[in-house]
Design brief:
With 694 residues, the protein is of the alpha+beta class. 28% of the residues lie in helices and 32% in strands.
């Protein structure tokens, strides 16, 4: 069997993640330029960035879909293969970050030297925490007015709960920013007019005392966890540079520290040392270790000698080759024409073609090895989160969670021809994007699109028109409210129906009470003495869950409720699973009506960055939107206003903010949770809901 050309220990699977506008796509462009993958770095706002290839990305100047590429970098006379996924920074497209982090071994968090740790920075950092992804950080835009690396480091400690360790300090700042000084090696990096990296041994005399003080603290932090190094250091023996690099790597892989570098990606400053650090410190698939099956009973070793296993983490419809399935291969080897088992469906699938992706361009390959990220053509029924494995050695890996939509909008095709194309187009978009859902309203027959925000749905509708030639009329986005209860209620209900044949009989005694936020519907039972046979209890749970899909207040799904089946009765001849399901469904609805049902509305964490002169306008407008102001702080020359605002009040906010700030203010928001809506709001939502159903 043909072996891989790059040893597995020199493979890096990394993601570039950040808040919107922190510069992560520009960082990726510069990485591709410095590694020779491209010959000119595109610019996001010019619409020619390699990794932002969708027309919607080029028009808006933001990343919408994650894009994969592969490059190589030589460090210490060894070539490394670096597989990169550039992820979106806008909260509406957070699913792209979620599924990318699920399959990556390491990540680079990009932070703006002025903006620091912004809301989406926190979100993507928490996502990486969830998957135990080791990280390093790159503080970008050091040449901007107000740049402050130390302030960003402090924000990382406070807001992210990590230990950032600066391996560099900036050489100058703002308009005097020249480069970076490496603390471990005591060298100075500058970049000439042609953006070429110049490495100079030693440090500027004016900074030598600061460098030595910071270096001593850094070395002490690195050696304190290694007994041999610590003992030698305390005896006056200076650790070698290679030993210090090894300690940084070990502590990074164990997520004890986050190495931090700095630069200005737009000017190409700091990219070569960043690439050195990525290959030196971030883990290889071997460092990530064996992948564990869902349930923790089986493992796969990251080796081409192990049975094949992979996770399908992304789907993409390609106009030239059809459906592309992106795979992270965890073990074994995959070749063209191989037959693999989709353990989610139990179906065998044949691999048509194997591709190595560079954004939206493709390189055909014959085989792919453990540790690689590739795309496959020819898989028919595979979905996001499915495990593919050797048919002779099946395994099921942990899947990928799909978020619940927070916004819905109706769409209606303008012509009969568009109607026939709409269904297939929606199927393809839903296949690509697991955070996008489609449903048909049973009463109105309207097609409803669900997504993570106003921008998410707007982009999807644009793609329907542009890519699939479906002319649409789009309804105003609507909030995905939920319902809950405020009181504990016990309710006993008997369901009895006599027909010409066997009757239907069931009786249940339910206790329902408010649950913890975010827990959904929890079901338990305390039935004793056989008052309800065990085989009917699953039917009771099913009836409760079906009833919870449509609340009694305004028809929205019920959440954060505990339901306990305490007792009941059955009839030997007339009881059945169907009878208990119907009985439980009615009992739950009756109990909910008595339990003070409440409307839950999505609450957004909003952060507005504004010049000083518009603070009053911003705060007044947010307050008028039922917002609660949480803070007002200085960050560089701008003011940062933090608030919590109901999602329903944030539609159209971008235009309003642009209007009263002359386009000088910006904002970001992300879902923070759900809160009980005021009674007046609940009454209005219920009235509108009833009118729309009429």
């Amino acid at each position: 069997m043909t072996r891989r050309t790059t040893p597995l220990e020199r493979v890096r699977n990394i993601g570039i993640m950040a808040h919107i506008d922190a510069g992560k796509t520009t960082v990726t462009e510069q990485i591709l330029l410095r590694t020779g993958k491209i010959h000119r770095a595109g610019k996001v706002h010019d619409g020619d960035a390699t990794m932002d290839w969708l027309p919607e990305e080029q028009e808006r100047g933001i990343t919408i879909t994650s894009a994969a590429t592969t490059c190589s970098w030589r460090v210490e006379e060894k070539d490394h293969q670096v597989n990169i996924i550039d992820t979106p920074g806008h909260v509406d497209f957070t699913m792209e970050v979620e599924r990318s982090l699920r399959v990556l071994d390491g990540a680079v968090g990009v932070f703006c030297a002025v903006g620091g740790v912004e809301p989406q920075s926190e979100t993507v950092w928490r996502q990486a925490d969830r998957y135990d992804v080791p990280r390093m950080a790159f503080i970008n835009k050091m040449d901007r007015a107000g740049a402050n690396m130390n302030a960003v480091l402090e924000q990382m400690r406070e807001r992210l709960g990590c230990e950032p360790v600066a391996l560099q300090i900036p050489y100058g700042a703002e308009d005097r920013f020249k480069g970076a000084i490496d603390l471990l090696e005591r060298v100075t990096f500058t970049w000439d007019e042609d953006e070429q990296c110049v490495r100079s041994e030693g440090v500027p005399e004016s900074l030598s005392d600061e460098v030595e003080t910071l270096r001593a603290a850094l070395v002490e932090r690195l050696v304190e966890g290694d007994e041999a190094l610590l003992e030698a250091y305390l005896n006056g023996q200076e650790p070698s540079i290679s030993a210090l690099h090894a300690r940084v790597r070990a502590m990074t892989v164990q997520a004890e520290i986050v190495p931090v570098l700095c630069g200005s990606a737009l000017k190409g400053v700091g990219i070569e040392p960043l690439l050195d650090a990525i290959t030196r410190y971030l883990p290889s698939p071997l460092d990530a270790g064996d992948v564990v099956a869902a349930g923790g009973e089986e493992t796969r070793t990251p080796s081409e000698d192990a049975p094949f296993s992979a996770l399908a983490f992304k789907m993409m419809a390609d106009e030239y080759v059809g459906q592309l399935t992106f795979l992270r291969i965890y073990s074994g080897v995959l070749e063209k024409k191989d037959r693999v088992l989709d353990t989610a469906t139990g179906q065998l699938e044949r691999v048509g073609r194997l591709l190595r992706m560079h954004a939206n361009t493709r390189e055909e390959i014959e085989r792919a090895f453990a540790g690689e990220i590739v795309a496959v053509v020819g898989l028919k029924q595979v979905g996001t989160g499915d495990t593919l494995s050797d048919p002779e050695a099946p395994i099921v890996l942990e899947s990928i969670d799909r978020p619940t939509p927070v916004v819905w909008s109706s769409v209606e095709p303008e012509t009969r021809a568009a109607q026939t194309r709409l269904g297939e187009a929606l199927r393809k978009l839903a296949m690509e994007d697991p955070s996008f859902q489609v449903r048909v309203d049973d009463e109105t027959g309207q097609t409803l699109l669900g997504g993570m925000g106003e921008l998410h749905l707007e982009v999807l509708c644009q793609r329907l028109v542009r890519e699939y030639k479906v002319q649409l009329r789009v309804g105003r986005p609507e909030v995905a409210y939920r319902e809950t209860i405020a009181q504990e209620v016990e309710h006993r209900f008997r369901f009895k129906r006599m027909t010409g044949g066997p009757g239907m009989f069931a009786e249940v005694d339910l206790l329902i009470r408010p649950g913890e936020p975010g827990t959904g519907v929890l079901f338990d039972e305390t039935v004793r003495g056989g008052s309800i046979p065990r085989e009917y209890i699953p039917a009771v749970e099913k009836g409760v869950r079906e009833a919870a899909e449509e609340g009694v207040l305004a028809g929205y799904p019920v959440t954060d409720v505990e339901v306990i089946l305490r007792d009941g009765l059955y009839h030997e001849n007339d009881s059945s699973e169907m009878a208990f399901k119907i009985c439980a469904s009615i009992a739950f609805r009756d109990a909910s009506t008595q339990a003070s049902p409440k409307l839950l509305e999505p609450i957004m964490a909003v952060e507005v960055t504004t010049p000083e002169e518009y603070i009053g306008d911003v705060i007044g407008d947010l307050s008028a939107r039922r917002g609660r102001i949480l803070g007002n702080e200085q960050r560089g020359p701008a003011r940062i206003i933090k608030a919590r605002v109901p999602l329903a009040q944030m539609f159209g906010y971008a235009s309003a903010l642009r209007g009263f700030s002359q386009g000088r203010a910006s904002y970001s928001m992300q879902l923070e949770g759900h809160e009980i809506a005021p009674d007046a709001v609940a009454d209005e939502v219920r009235r509108l809901r009833m009118n729309s159903d009429a």
